[in-house]
Every structure is written in C-alpha cells, then in structure tokens.
Amino acid sequence: MIHLKMKLLAAATAVLLTACSADPESADTVDADEAAIEHVMDKHSASTPDEAYITHLDLELAVDMAAEVITGTATYDIVNHGKGRIVFDTRGLTIAEVKDADGRVLKHTLGDSTFLGRALMVEIGPEVKRLSIAYRTGAGADALQWLSPQQTGGKRHPFLFTQGQAILTRTWIPIQDSPGIRITYNANVHVPAELMAVMSASNTTTRNAAGNYSFSMLQPIPPYLIALAVGDIEYRNIGPRTGVYAEPELVDKAAKEFADMENMVIAAEELYGPYRWGRYDVIVLPPSFPFGGMENPMLTFATPTILAGDGSLTALIAHELAHSWSGNLVTNATWDDFWLNEGFTVYFEKRICEKIYGQDYAEMLAVLGRQELTRTMHDLKEDGHDADTRLKLDLAGRNPDDGMTDVAYEKGYAFLTLLEAETGREKFDAFLRGYFDAFAFKSMTTEKFLAYLKEELLDPGNVSLDLDAWVYQPGLPANAPVVASHRFALVDSALVRWSSGVPAMELATGDWSTFEWMHFLRGLPTGITTERMAELDKTFGFTASGNAEIAFTWFEQCIANQYEYAYPALSEFLVHVGRRKFLTPLYTALAGTESGMLVARTIYKQARPNYHSVSTHTIDDVLGWQKMTEPVTM
Which CATH architecture has domain 496-629? Predict the structure, then answer.
C-alpha cells in the first residue's frame, strides 16, 4: 500500500442547511486549514498559489436584470506565504477597489489582456489574511446568459444563469480560477422581488418577497462549480434528499420525469460510498443552456431537452449525480487531466443505470457512446488534432474547452471498463470506493492517479497493462473492451430488412426505446432517396418528434440525404435548442455544401442571440461567422 500523505478530510458534523435540506449530518464539512493542500501550477490560470491562495469566499451580489449587470463584493480568506502579493483571474470585470479586513485600500494592477483574461495582482503585506474586491461584470460576460422574457417558457419574466466550466467563472467573479484550488463560499444575492435565485449551495424552496437570498457551500469546491440562476422558478419535492426547480410551465413535468432521482442516489451510494453534499436537486433551465447538464454541487443545471415525457433520457441525471463523486469530490487538478472527471463519471453513470434499469439499458448506452467516440476520433484526426485523442492532454496556449470532447468521456470509460475486466468487478469496485475516500475534496493529476492505480490495484493483482498506450498515446488501443447490445442486434436486423426494400410499417418497432431509435437512425445507409426518407417520416413521425435525441439524429440524416421537407423543423430546432452537442454536428453538416452553408448562416443569424457563449464560440468557427460579420474596410 502506498502512503501519499493524504487523509480523509470529510468529518460528519452537524451542518445548518435551509429548511429544504435532508438530515444535516448527511453533508460533510471540511476545514480547509486542516488540509495538506498540494497545488499544481495551472497554465489556464494566472493565480500563483505558491505566493498566496484563497480558501473561502463571501459574496454580496446585486443582480440587475434590466441592465444585465451583476455588481458585488467578493471577500476572501487567504493563505498568505508572505511573498508580497496575491493574483486573481478576471476577464471583462471592472474592479472598483480592493481592501484588507481593516478597510485599508490595497494597491492593485491588471495585467495584459489575453484569451485567458487579465491577471489582477494585489499587493499584500504578510499580515493580510482577508481582503475584499468590489467589482461589476462587463457587457458580454461569457459565463452569464441573460434571457429576455420571450426566451423563457413563461414569457413573462427575464432569466439569468451562469456556466463556469472551464474558465468562465472569472467573467463574473474575480477568482483564482483553477480546478486545483478549492474554496468554501457563502453568498447573499439580491434579485427583483418577482424572481427567485438559486445557487450551487444550500437553497430555499420558496420565494422571498424582498428578493434576498442567502446561500452556503460548506464543502470546498473548485471555482468552476460556483453557479447562479435567477428567474421565475418553482420547486417540487421528489424524495427525502431530492427535488427539482424549473419554470412553472415545466416544473411538474420535470418532477414526473425525474421520479427515479432518489433511487439513483441510493444506487450510487451502494456502489461507491456516501453522498457527501446533503441534498441533490436539479434545476431545468431554458433551452439555451449549452450542455446536457452541469454538475454544480447540490444543484445540477440541466437542459430541457432531456424531458422526453417517458423518462427515457434521464441517464443524463445519473451522469451528473455521479459527478458528486468523480469531478466534484475528486477533481481534475488541471484541464489537461479532464478525463479524470469525465471518464470516471461515464463509468459510474453506466453502473447506476445498470442497477436501476438493467444490463440491456447500460449496454445500449455503452454502444452509443462508442459510436460517438469513433466519430470524434475520426474527425479529430481528419482535422489534424490526433494528439487530442489522448487521455492526458496538452492544452497549453488553447482554450481548455477544446479538450472537452468525447475522448475524455468515452475513451476514459473504455479504459476503466478494461481495468474492471482485468481485475474483476469486486476488486475494481473496492478500489474505486477507496479512491474516492482517500482523495475526497482533493484535486488529482493523471500522474498521481496512475501511481495510485499501480500500487493499489495493478501491482497487488499482478496485472500488467500498457498504461502509456491508453493515457499518453493517440487513438483507441487494440485491447479496448468490445461493446455490444443484443437489443441493438435486433435493430440491425430491422435495418437490413428496410434497406432491402421491406416497408417501414412492417418492421417490428413497437417496443423500441429512444436508444433503439437512435441506433436505427445512425445506421441508415447512405444515399437514401427522398421517397424512402418520406416513407420513414410518414411511418414514424421523426420530423415532428418531441424527443430531442431522436429529432437530432433524424435531422443529421435529413441533411446527409438532402431531405428538405424537414428543414423548417430543423430550423425551428436550431433556433430554440442551445445544447452544443446538437448544434455543432448539425451546423457542421450543413456547412459541408455551398447551399447548406447558406441555410446554416440564415438560421444562425436568427438563432445566435438565443445561444450561450459556450455554443457561439464553437459555431462561429464552424460557420466562419466573424469573417461574415466583420465590417468591410476600403
């Protein structure tokens, strides 16, 4: 057994949560001062933790929905190594003043502007242990999505949500914006009286008539997990520790859709130990949210595109819940180590789903994931980015968002399933449980994980694996576990029949799940005639589908086969859905032809104001949007 000088930081103590909380003792508290903190220098942060680093944040915020501005004061507890300064990350913020705990003004300067923002350097004497920064957000802060009433479900009130991953928290809070720095936080947030605020912290379930909301996150988290949403929000309880927030028009539908949430928490705990965050709630955001879900602790932010009406897409909730262990509890130290968050979470998600929904369900998920990985690896190689098919990345000089591909998720998952196969499920489960316990509330590098893996699992079991090929080399190694689904084999038989001329209405599809329909549509042959596309559409109603995954997969085929009858529905989908997973492939496919590019740019001109910056930054590149909109100079 190795000794990495790690100790379990979680102490089961009484935690004062709001009235919506479960048993207070179910949430861990962690004293950052007790931790033997090891910081890794982060190429995506200007912070210099060897000089000084933050351990706690108190936020006082006022949200002006009309002006689309947040003004506030951020007050930090710091560990000061007496080297004369502390450095924060900012981007687009206006810094009013910086003071120490006694109200003395501290000299500060802003560094040069780069794609990472501007370093805020504050001069501090060795006696400074606490300081405050007064600031306001700038126009176009990338973390903030301000929505007009027309962009919401109710169309009565504006809405705001934040998205901090990977390096966007610095656009709404001056912060040491590195996943390797963990802090606790409290916040007081003032919003218009008719709206409600929630955060990635303890939350109330009722509206405050004065518009004042207080929050507390007692466990240390990386700054990218600080999150805020403000809008016309209501709450519905699901279980003793679970519930859902959403706009009034969606909240009951969401509560019904997420009925299995409490069972998911129980299943996760049975696998890998106690849930350490008190409550697990979800907020369903308006459609412009750029991701399927974001694992903000205690309050997952989720897209409404998972509300299929039959619970068929809630594997995403299992994924975000799993992040409460892999990602939030044990966090990648830098964005080069992103696979440590996502590969583990995909593996954990599949295990939760297998426990609740059965092996068939988990197998279908695994096959769909492998299909996505194969396509992503092909595209990266074609684009000259084969190095990005490695698990351990090198994102120096690049936006870490570039590394958030299916490789981290699905190649990471494949690696962990190989470890399970080589060591046995029982031993691998014990290893993962020990891993989450040993490194709870810590950050993890790839190298530290591999050392722990070898000494705790591989060497004791005399298991030999080419770790270099899996972690540091591009592509998928030849010994990757084969994924298969017998239910998909039946779908493949139906595909063969239809391809040979059997009418669609004669296929036995009555009990197909969303996953089977996705596999069917992905497997359609190339060069389908308009008549045969129309036959499929008439039989199964794909163009009018209310299931976002089925609609997206069908629209991909419509573009590939120029089935223009579906283009009005495709346009409607792209205008109202902001989830980047859907947008990028559809716009990319349209951009593959001259006529398609014209269609894409026409749609995008209307849709772009509805998208979060995470999505527009990607689609702008796909469509060459900046060149299209640059003023002509003579």
Answer: Alpha Horseshoe (1.25)
**Angle at CA of residue 184, ends 335 and 247, nearest 5°:** 85
- The answer to whether 286 touches 250, Cβ cutoff 8 Å, is no
Residue partners of 573: CB distance under 8 A and separation at least 6: 551, 552, 555, 582, 586
With the C-alpha atoms ordered 429, 431, 437, 443, is the resulting torsion angle positive or negative? negative
How far is Cα of residue 409 from the mean position of the Cα atoms in its chain?
11
Range list for CATH 1.25.40.320 in the chain? 496-629
Q: Is 320 a catalytic residue?
A: yes
- CATH 1.10.390.10 domain locations along the chain: 330-471
Quote the tokens at residue 332: 């990648």
**Is the bond preceding 551 in cis, omega lying within 30 degrees of 0?**
no
CA distance to 259, 352, 511, 557, 583, per residue, from 365 (Å): 20, 12, 17, 21, 21
User: Among this protein's residues, is 564 annotated catalytic?
Assistant: no
Span 27-72, pLDDT tens digits: 666 654 444 467 888 999 999 999 999 999 999 999 999 999 999 9
Q: What is the rounded distance in angstroms from the CA atom of residue 519 to the CA atom of residue 515?
A: 6
Catalytic residue among 53, 224, 409, 435: 409
C-alpha span between 372 and 376 (Å, rounded): 6
Written out in words, the top-level CATH class of the domain with range 330-471 is mainly alpha
- The pLDDT value given to residue 30: 61
Active-site residue identified among 247, 295, 320, 349: 320
The phi and psi torsions of 481 (rounded to 5 degrees) equal -60, 140
Taking CA atoms, 252 is separated from 235, 236, 390, 551, 577, in Å, by 9, 7, 42, 23, 21
> pTM (2 decimals)?
0.92
